[in-house]
Amino acid sequence: MRYEIRVDGHMSETLAKAFPELDHVVMSGQTVLYGSVIDEAQLFGLLARCQSLGLHVLEMRQVPE
Amino acid sequence: MSVDEDQPESAEQQTDPLGDPYLRTRFILPSRPVTFLARPRLTRRLDHSPPTPLTMVNGAAGAGKTLLLADWAAGRAQPVAWLTMEAEEKRPGMFWAHFLHALRTSGRHLSDRIEDPADAHHVDRRLLSAIAEDLATADPPVTVVLDEYERVTEPDIAEQLEFVLQHAGRGLRLILVTRTEPLLSLHRYRAAGELTEIRAAELAFTPEETVALLRLHGLRLSVQAARALVDRTRGWAAGLRLCALAAQESQDPEVYLKEFEADRSTIADFLLAEVLKRQPEDTQDLLLRISVLDRFNPDLANTLTGRADSARILADLHRENAFVEQLGHSWYRLHPLFGEILRAHLSVRRPGLEPELHRRAARWLRQTGSLPEALAHGAAAGDWDFTAAALVDDLAIGRFFTGLRSDDLAGLFSRMGPETTSPATELVRAARDLSHGDFRHGTVHLRQARARLDGVTGDPAAARLSCALLEALAARLTGSPTRAELAAESADEVRQDVAPDLLLKHPELPALLLTHLGSTRLWAGRFEEARAALAKAADAPDSASTVLARKESLGHLALIDYLDGWLGRAEHKALEAVAEAERFDPSPPAGSAIEQVVLAGVAVDRNELGRAKTLLDEAAEHSATPHDPVTAAGRAIVTARLQLARGDARAAVEAADPDVFAVVASPWAESHERLVTSAARLAEGRAGEAAEILRKLGDDQPSCTTEAARIQCAVGNVDEAIDLLDSVPADGRTGPAVTVRATLVKAMAADAAGDTATARRLVAQALLDARRERLRRPFLDAGRWIRPLLVTAPLDRLAAGWLTAGHPACEDPAGPGTPPAPIVVEELSARERDVLRRLAQMMSTQEIAADMYVSVNTVKTHLKSLYRKLAVNRRGAAVRRARDMGLL
C-alpha cells in the first residue's frame, strides 16, 4: 500500500528524519510525506507520530502503486 | 525508580501486579511553571455545578490540557486523584491497580473488600462492582483525573471504566485528558447531559490570553498583533510558548513575531529549532541527550552529559517554561512533543550517539534498582551482554515462565542476534527456547552458558542459580531424573552465595525449580520424593509470580493421588489448582493443564464420560507446553481409559501412547500403556494376547498390579491374579480406586471358585468403599458375574442410588423375601424404550422394524444394547425385568 500524508507547513530536513521510512517533498506551504505502508497498524502509527510532533495533517490518501 | 521519603505514603500496596514499585511521579499533580497563565474561562467550565459524571478534555499535544487540569485541581478544596497513564496500562489488571493506587494516594480510604488485582492482565467483575459500590457512597464525590488517556487503547478498559462510572453514580467524577477520542460511548453521555467536553477549539488561546501570556514572558504586544499570531499558531499553547521564548531571546521581539507570522515552516519544528539554537551550547547538548529518556533527575542527566551542572540547567529550563516539566521533587520530563522533535535533532546533530546514551542510562537505572527501565534502555542500546546480565544478576530469569512479563521479555530480547555469547545471553536464549518447550535448542544454549560460567569473573551465584532452574526445566521436558537431581543439588550449593534480598524478591525461582524437580521425579515413578518437592513448591509464598508454580505443583500432586487411587483427594487438589489458575490470566504460558487431565480421570472413574471428554478437550486447548512428559502420559492414560469405557478398544490403544520424547522411560507410564493394550485385547475377546502383554509388565505400582490382576482373572488365570494381588504391599498408600478394584478381583476369583458367600461379602466391601467416591467404573468393568450379585439383598441396597437406579437404602418393609431390585447402570435411550414397549406387545423383530420405520438390523442393535443394560439375554426376561423396574 502506498500512501501520502500531506501536512501543513514546510518540514525541516531534521524533522523529516523522524519519518525515516517515508520520502518527503515540500511544496507551496505544505509537506507531502509518501512511501509504502505495511498495514493499517503502521498507518495509525504514522498518524500518531504526526500528532506527537505537532504536525497538522491536511490530507491522507492511498495512491496507486 | 526512586521513592521520595518526604511525602506521606497512604497507599498500602507498594508494588503493582508485576511486582514493580509504583512510580510516585505518576500520581501527583504536575507543577505549573512561573509563566503559566491561569485561564478562568476554562476552569469555570470544570467547576460547573453540579458536575457531570464524565469530563473529557481533548486536544492535540501541547494544547495545554495537563496544566489546565493541574491548575484547576490545585485550587480545589477536595484532593483530586491523579494518574498519568503509561503504556503498561493496556492490561486491565495493571490499569485498575494503578487506578486504586491513585485513589489511595489522594487520601481516599477504600473498603477492605477491595483487593488489588493480583493479575496484570485481568480484572474481576466483582472487584469493579466493589469499587463502584465504594465510590457510590463518597460524599463529596471523588474526582479522578486520568492524564494521557490516549495511551489506553484497550476496549476492555473503556468498557470497565464505563461500568464503574455507571454504578458509582454521583460518587465518582471522572476526567479524561486525552489527545484522541476515547472508546467510551460518549454520545450516550452527551445525550443525557452527563458529559462536559473541552475540546481543541476551546483550549486554543484567544488573542487576549495571548497578550497576557506574552506579558508573563516580559513581552508587549497589541491585541491586533496577537490576533495574527493566534491565526498563525491556531492558538496552540505550545506554539505560543515557544514563540515567546524565541522572541525573548531575539534582538527585537516585535519584529521577530512579525517574521514568524510570515514563515511557512511547520510551527513546532521551526520554533523548537529557534529556541534550541538560542540556548547556550551546554544546555542544547543536555536537551538533545536527555531526549532518549522518559523521565530524569539531575543525576541521571549528568550521567548522560558527563558534566555536573544538570541541576542548575534543568532548574533554569523549568523556570523559563522551556521544554521540561517538573514531575515533583527532583524528577523532570521533557514535554512529550519536544521530546520527539529533540530526538530527531539528536540523530542529525550527534549521529551515532543514541546507543551510547541508552547504554549510560541503562547502567544508571540498573544501579538505582529500576530493572524494567534498565532492560528497555539496554535493549535500545543493543547492548545485549549488559541487558542479559542485568536480568540474570537480578535473578529475574524466572519471569520468562511466570506469565507476568513473559511477553515483554520475549519481545525485548527478540532483536538479540547470535553474535553475543556471554553466559547471561546464553541463559536468556535457553530460557526463551525452553519457555516454548524447545528443549533441543534450549539445551544447546544451556551447555554453552555452563561452559562459559566457569570463566566468569565477579559474582556468578545468580547466574549459576538461574542455570540450575533452566537445567531443572530441561530435565523435566526431557524426562531425565538424574539431570534434575543434579540441577537441584547445584541450586542448593549456590543458593547461600546469592544475596538474600534477591531471593526474597524472586520467590518464583525456587518454586519453579521444585516444581520441575517434582515433575521429573514423578516421571521416574518416585512418587514419595516427588510429593515432597511438589508440596514445598505448592507452599511457596502467595504472590503473583508464584501462581503458575503453585498451580503446576498442585496439579502434579493431584495426578499422584489419582494414580494412587485417591479420587476425592485428587479432585480436591486439582480444583485448588484450577482456582489458582483462575486468579491468573489464561493467556500463555498457562502451564501444562495437568489438573484438567486429572479431573477428567476422576470423571471417567465415576462413569461421567461426557464430562471427562469435555475436560480432556479443554486440557488440550489450554496446554501451553506441548512437550511435557508427565502431562502427556497423564493425558494418554485418561484418554485411553475413556475410550475403553466407551467400548472403543482401538481408539484406546491409539490414545495410550503418550508419544513424547524422554531420556528415561517412565515405569508407570509404560505399564499403563501396556495395561490399556491388554484390556483392549480382552475387550476384543483376544484373551491370550491380553495375558501375553501382561508378561512384559515391569512396574510395581499398585494400580498397575491390580489392573493386571483383573485382566488375568478375566482371562481365567485366577491363581496368577491372586499372586499379583498378594504382591501389593498393604501400606495404606493406595486409595479406593485401587483397593476397590483389588477387592472385586478377589470377589471374581471367589465367584469363579463357586464361593458365592465370599464373593458377596467382598462385593459388599467394595460397594462400601466405592460409594463415598461415587466410584462406578470398577463395577461396570467387572464383567457379567457381578450382575446377579448386585441385584440381591443386601448388595442391592448398597448399590442403589449411586450405582444402580432406585432409591438409596431405605428400610425394606417386606424383608429379605422381596424380589431384588434389578440394576440399571445405564439409562435406556429413547429408541431403546420404543423398542422395549413394542417388545412388551409381543411384536416380532420384523414387526417392530416396520412399525418404527427402521431396518431389522437397527432393531437388533437396539435389542442387544437393551439386553446388556437390563442384564438379560432373552426378550421375555427383558420384558419381565422392565416391568419389575417400572420401565413399562
Topology:
The complex is a heterodimer of chains A (65) and B (888).
Chain A: E1 2-8, H1 13-16, E2 23-27, E3 30-36, H2 40-52, E4 57-63
Antiparallel strand pairs in A: 1-3, 1-4, 2-3
Chain B: H1 40-47, E1 54-58, H2 65-74, E2 81-84, H3 92-105, H4 125-136, E3 142-147, H5 155-168, E4 172-178, H6 186-191, E5 195-198, H7 200-203, H8 207-216, H9 223-233, H10 237-249, H11 253-262, H12 267-278, H13 281-290, H14 298-305, H15 310-319, E6 324-328, E7 331-334, H16 336-349, H17 353-367, H18 371-380, H19 384-393, H20 406-412, H21 423-435, H22 439-453, H23 461-478, H24 481-495, H25 500-505, H26 508-523, H27 527-538, H28 547-564, H29 567-582, H30 594-605, H31 609-622, H32 629-646, H33 649-656, H34 667-683, H35 687-694, H36 702-714, H37 718-726, H38 736-752, H39 756-771, H40 777-781, H41 786-790, H42 795-799, H43 830-840, H44 845-852, H45 856-870, H46 875-884
Parallel strand pairs in B: 1-4, 1-5, 2-3, 3-4
Antiparallel strand pairs in B: 6-7
Helix pairs in contact in B: 4-5, 8-9, 9-11, 10-11, 10-12, 13-16, 14-15, 17-18, 18-19, 19-21, 21-22, 21-23, 22-23, 23-24, 23-26, 24-26, 26-27, 26-28, 27-28, 28-29, 28-30, 29-30, 30-31, 30-32, 31-32, 32-33, 32-34, 33-34, 34-35, 34-36, 35-36, 36-37, 36-38, 37-38, 38-39, 43-45, 43-46, 44-45, 45-46
Write a short abstract of this structure.
The complex is a heterodimer of chains A (65) and B (888). By secondary structure, chain A is α+β, with helices and mostly antiparallel strands.
